[in-house]
Known about the structure:
Blueprint: E1 2-6, E2 15-19, E3 29-38, H1 41-48, E4 63-71, E5 83-86, E6 89-90, H2 96-99, E7 110-111, E8 123-127, E9 131-133, H3 140-146, H4 149-160, E10 168-171, H5 177-188, E11 192-197, H6 200-208, E12 213-216, H7 222-229, E13 235-240, H8 247-252, E14 254-262, H9 275-280, E15 284-287, H10 293-304, E16 312-316, H11 321-330, E17 336-339
Parallel strand pairs: 10-11, 10-13, 11-12, 13-14, 14-15, 16-17
Antiparallel strand pairs: 1-2, 3-4, 3-8, 3-17, 4-5, 5-9, 6-7
The structure holds zinc ion (ZN).
Zinc ion binds next to helix 2.
Amino acid sequence: MKATVFHKHGDISVLRVEDMPEPAPGLNDVIVKVQACGVNRLDIYSRAGRTKVAPMPHIAGSEVAGEIAAIGDAVSGLTVGQKVAVAPYLFCGQCEFCRSGEEVLCLKSDIVGLGNQGGFAELVRVPAASVVPLPKEVDFVSAAGVALATITAWHMLTRQAPLRPGQDVLVHAAGSGVGSAAVQIAKLSGARVIATVGSAAKMEHARKIGADEVINYREQDFLQEVRRITNKRGVDVVVEHIGEETWEKSVACLTRRGRLVTCGATTGNDGKVNIWALFAKEIALIGSYGGTRQDLADVLKLVATRHLQPVIYGTYPLEQVGKTQQLMESREQFGKLVVAP
Ligand SMILES: [Zn+2]
């Protein structure tokens, strides 16, 4: 089968399309014929060596949608040819967190395309337990477009820091996968959405997907703008995924008993906290990691009923995986980049 692989870590020049052996299903696995695979920052981290990957040569790609091509002997309830999306957060099913139904906290967790071969290939092997059937209204590109970033935003805003109608929320980088999903989910919750973007062109996009107020962070100070928009009150929730570059100001944007929920640290892992403000304002700093299989099923249902619109910037062949990573690093795109093998 054709796949985009790298034999060693490095810049995008290490990526090449090669023939790789076709995967065979283990007892509890399925083989998915990949029709679409979303591009994620994880692909850049794994190629560059910021996260551990195995095996080498490695196939990245975590956000898979396609058709079941083969089924392991112990699998029931799935059929060859069935259209599915793959829940990317893998879990052991046996540790104390899995036993409690908290699969994203699994002690032996992995992600499709990190400790195993991913979806930038014609075929991928995944655990049967991780596939979610596609509603008939949802196409492969849309499904791949929501398989990771959207379930992450969903987990953040429905589980870790849920919003109530009328609350104010700040969403960073509305043009990113997590940001474009968080804007829509916050809007569905009835909140007033303040979004940041990095260019004038993206401001209109952000409004179109539901942002009430849009801040161009390259030209305006987002903390001052949040204070102005909220009459110095601050917001109830900040959706953080930028990290070091925005962290202190994000915390400062919170109103009393405000909650900052974070799922990423694109610009660096260190952030200072004003402890006095933390206790005096009864602020909560909340981590959020991925999403569950049910989060994916919930999100796909909302895509099917058009309550959620996957924001797709473009689709690319396997030969252009490197180009998609360049686009993502330049922060030029608005919405998801999807590879269609
Ligand atoms: Zn586990």
